[in-house]
Amino acid sequence: MQCQGGRVLVRYVQAHELTFVVLRYEGQTYGLAPAVSGSGSRYVGLAGLDTASGLEWWEHQGAGSLSRYDPQTGETTPLLQDCKLRS
């Protein structure tokens, strides 16, 4: 996907009745599990860019965003925004 700020490769994987996300960002591969979302589809992985934070992928209405996720506070810091499939 092409995003404001860079690119990310996102693959949705169906396992039983759950969907997981495997994403590739800056040469690393991460696995993210479904998380509670008020709107859209949200996935969180606790092992992120460093050992103190995880990653959050949030997709809503055809666009996605990737953020650094702090599991202690629940706060996020945007990394990539407005991610869309290339046409």
From TrEMBL:
SUPFAM superfamilies: YdhA-like. Residues 67-87 are annotated as: Disordered. InterPro entries: MliC, MliC_sf. Residues 2-70 form the C-type lysozyme inhibitor domain. Keywords: Lipoprotein, Membrane, Palmitate, Signal. This is C-type lysozyme inhibitor domain-containing protein. It comes from Deinococcus proteolyticus (strain ATCC 35074 / DSM 20540 / JCM 6276 / NBRC 101906 / NCIMB 13154 / VKM Ac-1939 / CCM 2703 / MRP).
